[in-house]
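Aim 2 progress update. The chain analyzed this quarter is reproduced below.
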Amino acid sequence: MPPTGPPTGGAEYLEHGGGAPLGPGQPRSRNLRPVLMGGAVVAALAVAGGAAWAAMSFLSTGAQPAEALPASTLGYVSIDLDPDGAQKIEAVRTLNKFPAFKAELGLDTDDDLRRAIFDEIQKDENCANLDYEGDIEPWLGNRAAFAAIDLGEDTPAVAVVVQVTDSDAATDGLTQLTNCADTGDADVQSSEKSQTGGFAVSGDWAVIAETDEIAQRLSGAAAEDTLADDEDFQTWTERAGDPGIVSMYAAAEAASVFFDSVDGLLPMAGLDPAREGSSQDPTEQMEKAFEGFEGMAATLRFDDGAIEFETAGGFGLQNTSFYATDRGDDVMSTLPADTAAAFGMGFEDGWLTQLAEQLSAAAGEDMTVEEMFAELSAQTGLDLPVDAETLLGESAVVAVGSDFDAEQLMSSADGSDVPVGIKVKGDPGAIEAVLDKVRGQMGPEEATFLEADAGDDMIAIGPNADYRGELLAGGTLGESDTFRDVIREAEQAGVIFYLDFDAGDDWLTTLAGDDPEAADNLAPLSAVGVSAWSEDNIAHGVLRVTTD
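Predicted structure tokens:
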């Protein structure tokens, strides 16, 4: 409002190039640029939102069977036949490298794996009048799980959970499958109580158990508190890394329940366990070994042309010994780049005493660790545990050269022509002194296998002088593409196993001999690696198989 009061002659409108009032009926001039810019922003947001939704859908794993199981689930193994888009592409791309897989299934990323499995089962004509399109496809989802659940009974309940897309159709379909198992005909129901089991369908899931009553109890318990919402389940599955096509989980209570069940099942199976309390009772020994079990999880996934199995578990072992160090690759990374196979470990001070204490506790032996070392020292001529820890130093690796020949090893008189050796990082002088003690207990021919050459802080032991020289010279295995692809946790690993399938003249395909089909299916394999490490008393492990 201007200071002089309201203007006369009606409202004024600002117009580009002037401020004169517009007369009645005079058209207004509009600048469309802000409108167009606003529309462009909205369109951009819509596109971005759509792309984000598509990406989330591509990467999303969807509903999982853990949502249909109670929080009291003790053990769980699930399979996802329709994982996120990245997993599906990796799986098909990797598996189709193998001619046998491609010929048998010939899957593409948009193929129905459920149909492929059904067709394989139906080849045996277990139920000829069961039709996939009409009886299975309308309700069967892509995810399923096998589980053991604690319902407060003497033994856990066992169940299978299957994803369904139509509960009514699932009820009909599961009835037909039950008929098939009972009578061999999908349309003929058994005149007696089904021996196959029972099921309950609720929402998006079907629970299949020993009886309908148990299935309904499991479904009702899951409605109150699901495994998917359980904090321990979430923690352990997250520790096992990115989800894949198979997931596994064991609760902390699983070990004790399992051993209680075994104690009850052995007599029922006609087996007579060793006397209770005896150190020879294998069940009791295993139970002691798992006293500190906190739970575990594992995942099988496809990743960058590789098949990977990752585990994480709290096994109650103290944070020392082998996998607790990060020294597994200290020596292995210095091996020749063309190494065919290697197994390496890192060691902390006192590792042998620690290991002996754990084994003695698990076995329930009456002999103390000190008495055990004294007896072994008398038998071997070594001063244990000191000599054993000196011999393996801070890190040690057993290595096999690329021109290794198994037949040559078997026919070799003294091993001098076989590229096999041990490389140790430690005190070469002290290690040589221990080796002299060991050689003194051996014959002249056997002692040649422990010949050694020393460097500044490394020593190479083995029968082949040339290969000992290669080991001491140092190498770049840790920098090779094959090693870095198959062992991705080398810098933190305490234990590493490495096997190069392409080493030498593709030794793996050579094993196929005159079988071209076998050779073609072995050819895509590149390497296999295993690494183990400990972090915050949690044991981690990865098994990885790469392809070319």
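Residues 317-547 form one domain. The mean pLDDT is 80. These observations will guide the mutagenesis experiments scheduled for the next reporting period.
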